[in-house]
GNAT family N-acetyltransferase (Streptomyces jumonjinensis), 344 residues
Amino acid sequence: MSDTPSDLEFVPLAADDDETVGQWLSLLADAAESGPRAAPPCTADMTGSLRFAPPATALDDWVVRSGGRVVGALRLALPDGAPSARVDQLLVHPGLHRRGIGRALHDHALRRAREHGRSTLSATVVESLPGGPPQDPGPAAFAAAMGAARSDIPAGVHQWLDLDRHDPLAGGVPATPAGYSLVTWGTVTPDEYAVQVSELELSLGDAPVDRAAQEVRTSYARQFETMRQGRGRRAYHTGVVHDGSGRLAGYTSVSKTTGNPAYALQGMTVVHREHRGHRLGMLLKLANLEYVLRHEPAVRLLDTANAEDNQPMIAVNAAMGFEPYDRWVFWTRSVDLPGSGLSG
């Protein structure tokens, strides 16, 4: 590694700084070409992210300049009340690797985490699956070199569905079991389902929850919708209603950005524990895929991730044609760990 450039300058990334934001977007595009498989960065989504943070989370965005140009970027996510600062973005221009810029960004992340009163720094690192396509070992090696270690949190299994290779709808959407009905909605959840969606999301369908607390959670859900709309994203939902009680027994979500017509993200799918065993998860996903394609016929690629111990949902995805591609491994370190190299 050659010497770190002597003129590195850290600058907060502000949404109204058009020149710096433009250079940041160029950096994202350049880094994506050599990074893990993902949808290309969407300009509307990324610029919107500077104004619309996830609910109950603050974002701390920085770029680092050298020679007057943006050569790296850092985003810290700061969930309310959590002890950890999460590194959502730590990027160095592909042509400037092994120049010490990554370490400088990491050291800046540690300083910012301390200033925000956080005790740990965490990140998600893409690693290879056994038998899967090889992934760049560099990010994991960098995390280890910075003093981080793999967390005990189960890794995520990242899967892709290529609709040009697999047609999950070739056999049609399964019949809805007796006693249930399907409903659909777009980006904004109808008022009649908002609390129930929140209950299912918070509990993952597994446990009773405090209804009063869910009223607050509904506000959280509305904040999420505000973020999604502010970033120009569209979403498609299918829910299954238990006819006898009139309550939502489960739902699924697919969302997409405006700038990538061919890409979509398969998000949350949850079925309440009292209604499992009827293949409602598969029904929801197939019915919602049909709903998505009616409105977004250009979609050809969907990706999703599930904790590796969630084998039932991973199996549902595999039955639809989703193929495992890589693992999302959680790494963490103390912000006060000796040997952090905080030399600037």
